[in-house]
Design brief:
With about 425 residues, the protein is of the alpha/beta class. It is built from 18 helices and 14 strands. Bound molecules: uridine-5'-diphosphate-glucuronic acid.
Protein backbone atom coordinates (compact mmCIF):
# COMPACT_ATOMS: atom_id res chain seq x y z
CA UNK A 1 0.00 0.00 0.00
CA UNK A 2 1.18 3.55 -0.67
CA UNK A 3 1.49 5.30 2.68
CA UNK A 4 2.56 8.84 3.50
CA UNK A 5 3.85 9.79 6.92
CA UNK A 6 3.66 13.49 7.71
CA UNK A 7 6.28 14.27 10.35
CA UNK A 8 9.65 12.58 10.74
CA UNK A 9 9.99 13.03 14.50
CA UNK A 10 10.40 10.14 16.80
CA UNK A 11 7.01 8.52 16.16
CA UNK A 12 6.77 9.32 12.44
CA UNK A 13 10.19 7.98 11.59
CA UNK A 14 9.86 4.78 13.60
CA UNK A 15 6.33 4.12 12.31
CA UNK A 16 7.29 4.91 8.71
CA UNK A 17 10.34 2.65 8.83
CA UNK A 18 8.39 -0.21 10.45
CA UNK A 19 5.53 0.04 7.94
CA UNK A 20 8.03 -0.08 5.09
CA UNK A 21 9.44 -3.21 6.71
CA UNK A 22 5.91 -4.67 6.49
CA UNK A 23 6.27 -4.28 2.71
CA UNK A 24 4.33 -1.02 2.23
CA UNK A 25 5.58 1.78 0.03
CA UNK A 26 6.22 4.59 2.51
CA UNK A 27 7.13 8.23 1.95
CA UNK A 28 8.17 10.08 5.11
CA UNK A 29 7.46 13.74 4.55
CA UNK A 30 8.64 16.71 6.59
CA UNK A 31 8.66 20.45 6.04
CA UNK A 32 12.04 20.69 7.71
CA UNK A 33 14.29 20.45 4.66
CA UNK A 34 17.40 20.13 6.82
CA UNK A 35 15.99 17.01 8.41
CA UNK A 36 15.00 15.49 5.06
CA UNK A 37 18.44 16.26 3.62
CA UNK A 38 20.06 14.45 6.52
CA UNK A 39 17.74 11.48 6.10
CA UNK A 40 18.43 11.38 2.36
CA UNK A 41 22.13 11.38 3.18
CA UNK A 42 21.55 8.31 5.36
CA UNK A 43 21.82 10.13 8.69
CA UNK A 44 19.27 9.31 11.42
CA UNK A 45 18.52 12.40 13.52
CA UNK A 46 17.67 10.46 16.72
CA UNK A 47 19.28 7.65 18.65
CA UNK A 48 16.96 4.64 18.67
CA UNK A 49 18.40 1.12 18.74
CA UNK A 50 17.89 -0.68 15.40
CA UNK A 51 16.38 2.30 13.58
CA UNK A 52 19.45 3.14 11.53
CA UNK A 53 19.68 -0.38 10.09
CA UNK A 54 15.91 -0.59 9.47
CA UNK A 55 15.84 2.72 7.58
CA UNK A 56 18.90 1.89 5.49
CA UNK A 57 17.58 -1.56 4.56
CA UNK A 58 14.21 -0.26 3.42
CA UNK A 59 15.67 2.70 1.54
CA UNK A 60 17.97 0.26 -0.25
CA UNK A 61 15.01 -1.98 -1.11
CA UNK A 62 13.02 1.05 -2.34
CA UNK A 63 10.24 0.69 0.22
CA UNK A 64 11.08 3.89 2.06
CA UNK A 65 11.80 7.38 0.78
CA UNK A 66 11.93 10.93 2.13
CA UNK A 67 10.49 14.13 0.76
CA UNK A 68 9.59 17.73 1.55
CA UNK A 69 6.92 17.75 -1.16
CA UNK A 70 3.56 17.31 0.58
CA UNK A 71 1.44 17.52 -2.59
CA UNK A 72 3.40 14.81 -4.38
CA UNK A 73 3.60 12.59 -1.29
CA UNK A 74 -0.14 12.72 -0.59
CA UNK A 75 -1.44 12.35 -4.14
CA UNK A 76 -0.65 8.68 -4.58
CA UNK A 77 -1.26 7.61 -0.96
CA UNK A 78 -4.12 5.40 0.20
CA UNK A 79 -3.30 6.21 3.81
CA UNK A 80 -1.82 9.43 5.17
CA UNK A 81 -0.55 9.42 8.75
CA UNK A 82 -0.36 12.65 10.70
CA UNK A 83 2.57 12.20 13.09
CA UNK A 84 3.54 15.77 13.82
CA UNK A 85 4.43 17.16 17.25
CA UNK A 86 1.83 18.15 19.85
CA UNK A 87 3.95 19.97 22.44
CA UNK A 88 2.44 21.57 25.52
CA UNK A 89 1.40 25.09 24.59
CA UNK A 90 3.72 27.91 25.58
CA UNK A 91 0.94 29.59 27.52
CA UNK A 92 1.05 26.55 29.86
CA UNK A 93 -1.83 24.88 31.65
CA UNK A 94 -1.30 21.49 29.99
CA UNK A 95 -2.99 22.36 26.69
CA UNK A 96 -1.62 20.31 23.78
CA UNK A 97 -0.65 22.61 20.91
CA UNK A 98 -2.58 21.39 17.85
CA UNK A 99 -1.28 23.98 15.39
CA UNK A 100 0.82 21.39 13.55
CA UNK A 101 -1.95 18.78 13.43
CA UNK A 102 -4.57 21.14 11.96
CA UNK A 103 -1.91 22.74 9.75
CA UNK A 104 -1.09 19.32 8.28
CA UNK A 105 -4.81 18.56 7.75
CA UNK A 106 -5.33 21.83 5.92
CA UNK A 107 -2.28 21.39 3.74
CA UNK A 108 -2.96 17.80 2.76
CA UNK A 109 -6.66 18.32 1.99
CA UNK A 110 -6.34 19.82 -1.53
CA UNK A 111 -4.17 16.90 -2.65
CA UNK A 112 -6.55 14.07 -1.77
CA UNK A 113 -7.60 12.42 -5.03
CA UNK A 114 -9.02 8.89 -4.64
CA UNK A 115 -10.49 7.58 -1.38
CA UNK A 116 -7.88 8.17 1.35
CA UNK A 117 -7.72 7.33 5.02
CA UNK A 118 -6.20 10.09 7.13
CA UNK A 119 -4.79 8.63 10.33
CA UNK A 120 -4.04 10.63 13.47
CA UNK A 121 -0.93 9.12 15.03
CA UNK A 122 -0.01 12.13 17.14
CA UNK A 123 -1.21 12.12 20.73
CA UNK A 124 -4.14 14.52 20.65
CA UNK A 125 -6.99 15.61 22.92
CA UNK A 126 -10.37 14.01 22.54
CA UNK A 127 -12.25 15.56 19.64
CA UNK A 128 -9.21 16.30 17.50
CA UNK A 129 -9.90 13.60 14.89
CA UNK A 130 -13.39 15.00 14.27
CA UNK A 131 -11.91 18.46 14.01
CA UNK A 132 -9.29 17.18 11.52
CA UNK A 133 -12.18 15.79 9.44
CA UNK A 134 -13.94 19.19 9.56
CA UNK A 135 -10.76 21.02 8.49
CA UNK A 136 -10.28 18.68 5.52
CA UNK A 137 -13.94 18.93 4.51
CA UNK A 138 -13.89 22.73 4.71
CA UNK A 139 -10.67 22.97 2.70
CA UNK A 140 -11.70 20.42 0.07
CA UNK A 141 -15.46 19.69 0.05
CA UNK A 142 -14.96 17.16 -2.78
CA UNK A 143 -12.48 15.00 -0.89
CA UNK A 144 -13.37 11.33 -0.41
CA UNK A 145 -11.80 10.39 2.92
CA UNK A 146 -12.21 9.06 6.44
CA UNK A 147 -10.31 10.05 9.56
CA UNK A 148 -9.03 7.39 11.96
CA UNK A 149 -7.40 7.77 15.36
CA UNK A 150 -4.58 5.25 15.75
CA UNK A 151 -2.52 6.03 18.87
CA UNK A 152 1.00 4.72 19.32
CA UNK A 153 2.37 2.86 22.33
CA UNK A 154 6.08 2.94 21.52
CA UNK A 155 8.62 3.28 24.29
CA UNK A 156 11.74 5.19 23.38
CA UNK A 157 14.68 2.83 23.32
CA UNK A 158 12.43 -0.15 22.53
CA UNK A 159 10.24 1.42 19.85
CA UNK A 160 10.95 -1.04 17.06
CA UNK A 161 10.20 -4.15 19.08
CA UNK A 162 7.13 -2.38 20.54
CA UNK A 163 5.95 -1.73 16.99
CA UNK A 164 6.69 -5.23 15.70
CA UNK A 165 5.29 -7.04 18.77
CA UNK A 166 2.66 -4.75 20.27
CA UNK A 167 0.27 -5.73 23.06
CA UNK A 168 -2.54 -4.35 20.93
CA UNK A 169 -3.39 -2.14 17.95
CA UNK A 170 -6.02 0.47 18.77
CA UNK A 171 -7.92 2.35 16.12
CA UNK A 172 -10.99 4.51 16.37
CA UNK A 173 -13.14 5.12 13.34
CA UNK A 174 -16.73 5.37 12.19
CA UNK A 175 -16.32 3.70 8.82
CA UNK A 176 -16.07 0.03 7.80
CA UNK A 177 -14.13 1.01 4.69
CA UNK A 178 -11.47 2.80 6.75
CA UNK A 179 -11.38 -0.09 9.17
CA UNK A 180 -10.50 -2.46 6.30
CA UNK A 181 -7.65 -0.16 5.24
CA UNK A 182 -6.28 -0.20 8.80
CA UNK A 183 -6.43 -3.99 8.88
CA UNK A 184 -4.50 -4.08 5.60
CA UNK A 185 -1.85 -1.72 6.95
CA UNK A 186 -1.31 -3.81 10.06
CA UNK A 187 -1.91 -7.15 8.37
CA UNK A 188 1.37 -8.77 9.52
CA UNK A 189 0.32 -8.09 13.13
CA UNK A 190 -3.21 -9.34 12.46
CA UNK A 191 -1.71 -12.60 11.17
CA UNK A 192 0.28 -13.03 14.40
CA UNK A 193 -2.91 -12.70 16.45
CA UNK A 194 -2.20 -9.25 17.90
CA UNK A 195 -5.46 -8.04 19.48
CA UNK A 196 -7.08 -5.28 17.41
CA UNK A 197 -9.25 -2.93 19.45
CA UNK A 198 -11.69 -0.99 17.28
CA UNK A 199 -13.45 1.87 19.01
CA UNK A 200 -15.04 5.23 18.37
CA UNK A 201 -12.73 8.13 17.52
CA UNK A 202 -13.11 9.63 20.99
CA UNK A 203 -12.42 6.38 22.82
CA UNK A 204 -9.23 5.71 20.83
CA UNK A 205 -7.98 9.21 21.60
CA UNK A 206 -8.69 8.72 25.29
CA UNK A 207 -7.14 5.22 25.40
CA UNK A 208 -3.79 6.82 24.64
CA UNK A 209 -4.00 9.30 27.51
CA UNK A 210 -5.47 6.73 29.89
CA UNK A 211 -2.63 4.29 29.15
CA UNK A 212 0.15 6.80 29.76
CA UNK A 213 -1.62 8.23 32.79
CA UNK A 214 -2.08 4.79 34.32
CA UNK A 215 1.60 3.98 33.84
CA UNK A 216 2.54 7.35 35.35
CA UNK A 217 0.27 6.57 38.31
CA UNK A 218 2.04 3.23 38.74
CA UNK A 219 5.46 4.90 38.79
CA UNK A 220 4.32 7.59 41.24
CA UNK A 221 2.68 4.92 43.38
CA UNK A 222 5.89 2.93 43.73
CA UNK A 223 7.88 6.12 44.32
CA UNK A 224 5.52 6.95 47.17
CA UNK A 225 5.89 3.40 48.50
CA UNK A 226 9.67 3.88 48.36
CA UNK A 227 9.34 6.88 50.66
CA UNK A 228 7.21 4.87 53.08
CA UNK A 229 9.74 1.99 52.89
CA UNK A 230 12.51 4.38 53.92
CA UNK A 231 10.39 5.62 56.84
CA UNK A 232 9.54 2.16 58.20
CA UNK A 233 12.82 0.44 57.29
CA UNK A 234 11.33 -1.80 54.60
CA UNK A 235 12.80 -2.67 51.20
CA UNK A 236 10.97 -1.35 48.13
CA UNK A 237 12.68 -3.75 45.71
CA UNK A 238 11.27 -6.71 47.62
CA UNK A 239 7.97 -4.90 48.07
CA UNK A 240 7.71 -4.29 44.35
CA UNK A 241 8.29 -7.97 43.65
CA UNK A 242 5.82 -9.05 46.30
CA UNK A 243 3.15 -6.73 44.97
CA UNK A 244 3.90 -7.07 41.24
CA UNK A 245 3.65 -10.86 41.21
CA UNK A 246 -0.08 -10.45 41.78
CA UNK A 247 -1.31 -10.94 38.24
CA UNK A 248 -3.95 -8.27 38.76
CA UNK A 249 -1.24 -5.70 39.46
CA UNK A 250 1.76 -6.78 37.38
CA UNK A 251 5.42 -6.07 38.05
CA UNK A 252 6.08 -3.71 35.14
CA UNK A 253 6.45 0.01 35.85
CA UNK A 254 6.91 -0.67 39.54
CA UNK A 255 10.56 0.40 39.72
CA UNK A 256 11.18 3.44 41.90
CA UNK A 257 13.50 6.14 40.62
CA UNK A 258 14.07 9.88 40.52
CA UNK A 259 10.61 10.49 39.03
CA UNK A 260 9.26 9.87 35.54
CA UNK A 261 10.30 12.10 32.66
CA UNK A 262 10.37 12.08 28.88
CA UNK A 263 8.30 13.61 26.16
CA UNK A 264 5.13 11.68 27.05
CA UNK A 265 4.18 11.07 30.69
CA UNK A 266 4.70 14.66 31.90
CA UNK A 267 2.92 16.17 28.89
CA UNK A 268 0.13 13.60 28.60
CA UNK A 269 -0.80 13.58 32.30
CA UNK A 270 -1.18 17.37 32.21
CA UNK A 271 -3.18 17.19 28.99
CA UNK A 272 -5.52 14.61 30.54
CA UNK A 273 -6.08 16.85 33.57
CA UNK A 274 -6.92 19.66 31.18
CA UNK A 275 -9.32 17.46 29.18
CA UNK A 276 -11.12 16.42 32.37
CA UNK A 277 -11.33 19.98 33.60
CA UNK A 278 -12.63 21.31 30.29
CA UNK A 279 -15.41 18.75 30.39
CA UNK A 280 -16.41 19.68 33.92
CA UNK A 281 -15.00 16.58 35.55
CA UNK A 282 -11.79 15.69 37.37
CA UNK A 283 -8.86 13.25 37.25
CA UNK A 284 -7.76 13.39 40.87
CA UNK A 285 -5.63 10.24 40.84
CA UNK A 286 -3.67 11.56 37.87
CA UNK A 287 -3.38 14.92 39.59
CA UNK A 288 -1.85 13.19 42.61
CA UNK A 289 0.57 11.27 40.36
CA UNK A 290 1.79 14.56 38.89
CA UNK A 291 2.27 16.07 42.36
CA UNK A 292 4.05 12.99 43.67
CA UNK A 293 6.37 13.11 40.66
CA UNK A 294 7.38 16.70 41.38
CA UNK A 295 7.88 15.81 45.04
CA UNK A 296 10.00 12.81 44.09
CA UNK A 297 12.46 14.97 42.19
CA UNK A 298 12.67 17.38 45.14
CA UNK A 299 13.13 14.41 47.48
CA UNK A 300 16.10 13.23 45.39
CA UNK A 301 17.78 16.61 45.84
CA UNK A 302 17.27 16.33 49.60
CA UNK A 303 18.52 12.74 49.59
CA UNK A 304 21.76 13.81 47.93
CA UNK A 305 22.11 16.83 50.24
CA UNK A 306 21.50 14.74 53.37
CA UNK A 307 24.00 12.12 52.19
CA UNK A 308 26.59 14.88 51.89
CA UNK A 309 25.99 15.83 55.51
CA UNK A 310 23.41 18.54 54.94
CA UNK A 311 25.06 20.75 52.33
CA UNK A 312 26.29 20.33 48.78
CA UNK A 313 28.03 23.71 48.72
CA UNK A 314 31.58 23.34 47.45
CA UNK A 315 31.24 19.58 47.01
CA UNK A 316 32.00 17.71 43.81
CA UNK A 317 29.28 15.35 42.57
CA UNK A 318 29.76 12.89 39.71
CA UNK A 319 26.55 12.24 37.79
CA UNK A 320 26.07 9.00 35.85
CA UNK A 321 23.26 9.39 33.33
CA UNK A 322 21.34 12.45 32.16
CA UNK A 323 18.60 11.17 29.83
CA UNK A 324 15.15 10.38 31.25
CA UNK A 325 15.72 6.66 30.62
CA UNK A 326 18.40 4.49 29.00
CA UNK A 327 18.77 3.74 25.27
CA UNK A 328 17.75 7.19 24.14
CA UNK A 329 19.43 10.56 23.63
CA UNK A 330 16.18 12.34 24.58
CA UNK A 331 16.53 14.88 27.38
CA UNK A 332 12.96 16.16 27.35
CA UNK A 333 11.65 16.55 30.91
CA UNK A 334 14.48 14.37 32.22
CA UNK A 335 14.60 14.44 36.06
CA UNK A 336 18.25 15.55 35.68
CA UNK A 337 16.97 18.88 34.36
CA UNK A 338 15.37 19.59 37.74
CA UNK A 339 17.74 17.82 40.11
CA UNK A 340 21.08 19.06 38.77
CA UNK A 341 20.26 22.80 38.68
CA UNK A 342 18.93 22.54 42.25
CA UNK A 343 22.31 21.15 43.37
CA UNK A 344 24.35 23.60 41.29
CA UNK A 345 22.35 26.52 42.61
CA UNK A 346 23.60 25.69 46.10
CA UNK A 347 27.19 25.65 44.91
CA UNK A 348 27.82 21.99 44.02
CA UNK A 349 30.41 21.28 41.33
CA UNK A 350 28.86 18.84 38.86
CA UNK A 351 30.79 16.44 36.67
CA UNK A 352 28.41 14.60 34.35
CA UNK A 353 28.37 11.72 31.87
CA UNK A 354 25.82 10.02 29.65
CA UNK A 355 26.45 7.39 26.95
CA UNK A 356 24.20 9.03 24.32
CA UNK A 357 22.62 12.15 25.79
CA UNK A 358 25.52 14.57 26.18
CA UNK A 359 25.04 16.47 22.92
CA UNK A 360 21.40 17.18 23.81
CA UNK A 361 22.20 17.78 27.47
CA UNK A 362 24.85 20.41 26.68
CA UNK A 363 22.16 22.55 25.06
CA UNK A 364 20.10 22.60 28.27
CA UNK A 365 22.77 22.20 30.93
CA UNK A 366 25.78 23.98 29.45
CA UNK A 367 27.55 24.87 32.70
CA UNK A 368 28.63 21.49 34.01
CA UNK A 369 31.81 19.53 33.36
CA UNK A 370 31.19 16.78 30.80
CA UNK A 371 33.36 13.68 31.19
CA UNK A 372 34.45 11.27 28.46
CA UNK A 373 33.74 8.21 30.57
CA UNK A 374 31.91 7.32 33.79
CA UNK A 375 35.31 7.04 35.49
CA UNK A 376 36.26 10.63 34.59
CA UNK A 377 33.30 12.07 36.49
CA UNK A 378 33.94 9.98 39.61
CA UNK A 379 37.48 11.29 40.04
CA UNK A 380 37.85 13.49 43.14
CA UNK A 381 34.09 13.32 43.72
CA UNK A 382 32.56 13.64 47.18
CA UNK A 383 29.62 11.61 45.89
CA UNK A 384 28.53 9.75 42.77
CA UNK A 385 24.86 9.79 41.77
CA UNK A 386 23.56 7.14 39.37
CA UNK A 387 20.65 8.91 37.66
CA UNK A 388 19.87 6.72 34.61
CA UNK A 389 20.18 2.93 34.48
CA UNK A 390 22.27 2.59 31.32
CA UNK A 391 23.73 -0.92 30.87
CA UNK A 392 27.16 0.69 30.79
CA UNK A 393 26.69 1.63 34.45
CA UNK A 394 25.57 -1.81 35.58
CA UNK A 395 29.01 -3.37 35.62
CA UNK A 396 31.29 -0.52 36.62
CA UNK A 397 34.78 -1.23 37.92
CA UNK A 398 33.85 -0.33 41.49
CA UNK A 399 37.38 -0.57 42.85
CA UNK A 400 38.59 1.87 40.19
CA UNK A 401 35.81 4.29 41.08
CA UNK A 402 36.28 4.06 44.83
CA UNK A 403 40.02 4.53 44.62
CA UNK A 404 39.72 7.83 42.74
CA UNK A 405 36.85 9.37 44.71
CA UNK A 406 37.46 11.80 47.54
CA UNK A 407 34.78 10.09 49.64
CA UNK A 408 33.30 6.72 48.65
CA UNK A 409 29.65 7.80 48.68
CA UNK A 410 27.43 6.19 46.03
CA UNK A 411 23.81 7.36 45.63
CA UNK A 412 21.92 5.02 43.36
CA UNK A 413 18.64 6.59 42.24
CA UNK A 414 17.72 3.50 40.15
CA UNK A 415 18.63 0.75 42.63
CA UNK A 416 20.96 -0.81 40.07
CA UNK A 417 23.38 -2.10 42.71
CA UNK A 418 22.69 -3.99 45.93
CA UNK A 419 23.55 -2.58 49.34
CA UNK A 420 25.57 -5.72 50.22
CA UNK A 421 27.71 -5.58 47.13
CA UNK A 422 28.41 -1.88 47.55
CA UNK A 423 29.25 -2.25 51.22
CA UNK A 424 31.72 -5.00 50.37
CA UNK A 425 33.21 -2.73 47.70
CA UNK A 426 33.84 -0.12 50.40
CA UNK A 427 31.10 2.39 49.61
CA UNK A 428 28.60 4.20 51.71
CA UNK A 429 25.61 3.27 49.57
CA UNK A 430 22.21 4.94 49.40
CA UNK A 431 19.41 3.69 47.17
CA UNK A 432 15.75 4.63 46.79
CA UNK A 433 13.30 2.95 49.16
CA UNK A 434 15.76 0.73 51.02
CA UNK A 435 17.98 1.80 53.88
C1 LIG B 1 5.84 6.05 27.21
C2 LIG B 1 4.95 4.80 27.19
O1 LIG B 1 5.57 3.76 27.96
C3 LIG B 1 4.71 4.31 25.77
O2 LIG B 1 3.81 3.23 25.77
C4 LIG B 1 4.10 5.47 24.95
O3 LIG B 1 3.89 5.10 23.61
C5 LIG B 1 5.05 6.65 25.00
O4 LIG B 1 5.24 7.05 26.36
C6 LIG B 1 4.40 7.77 24.20
O5 LIG B 1 3.37 8.28 24.60
O6 LIG B 1 4.88 8.06 23.09
P1 LIG B 1 8.47 6.52 27.05
O7 LIG B 1 8.13 7.93 27.42
O8 LIG B 1 9.38 6.27 25.91
O9 LIG B 1 7.12 5.69 26.73
O10 LIG B 1 9.16 5.86 28.33
P2 LIG B 1 8.75 4.84 29.47
O11 LIG B 1 9.53 3.60 29.32
O12 LIG B 1 7.31 4.70 29.59
O13 LIG B 1 9.31 5.62 30.77
C7 LIG B 1 8.77 6.87 31.16
C8 LIG B 1 9.43 7.35 32.43
O14 LIG B 1 9.02 6.55 33.55
C9 LIG B 1 10.95 7.29 32.42
O15 LIG B 1 11.47 8.46 33.00
C10 LIG B 1 11.28 6.07 33.24
O16 LIG B 1 12.55 6.12 33.85
C11 LIG B 1 10.17 6.11 34.27
N1 LIG B 1 9.89 4.79 34.86
C12 LIG B 1 9.35 3.80 34.11
C13 LIG B 1 10.19 4.57 36.20
O17 LIG B 1 10.71 5.46 36.91
N2 LIG B 1 9.90 3.36 36.73
C14 LIG B 1 9.36 2.34 36.01
O18 LIG B 1 9.11 1.26 36.58
C15 LIG B 1 9.08 2.58 34.66
Amino acid sequence: MNITMIGTGYVGLVTGACLSEFGHQVICMDKDSGKIERLLAGEIPIYEPGLNELVKKNVRENHLSFSTDLAQSVKSAKAVFIAVGTPSQRRGGGYADLTYVYGAAKELAPHLTDYTVVIDKSTVPVGTARQVARVIKETNPEADFDVVSNPEFLREGAAISDFMRPDRVVFGCDSEKASEVLKEIYNPLYLTSTPFVKTSLETAELIKYASNAFLAVKVSFINEMATICEAVDANVVELSKGVGLDGRIGGKFLHPGPGYGGSCFPKDTLALLRIAQEHGTAARIVEAAVEVNAAQKARMVKKIRDALGGSETGRTIGILGLTFKPETDDMRDAPALTILPALAEKGARLKVHDPQGMTEAKKMLPDYEYGESPYDVCEDADAVVLMTEWNQYRALDLERIRSTMKTPLFIDLRNVYTPDKMKKAGFTYIGVGRN
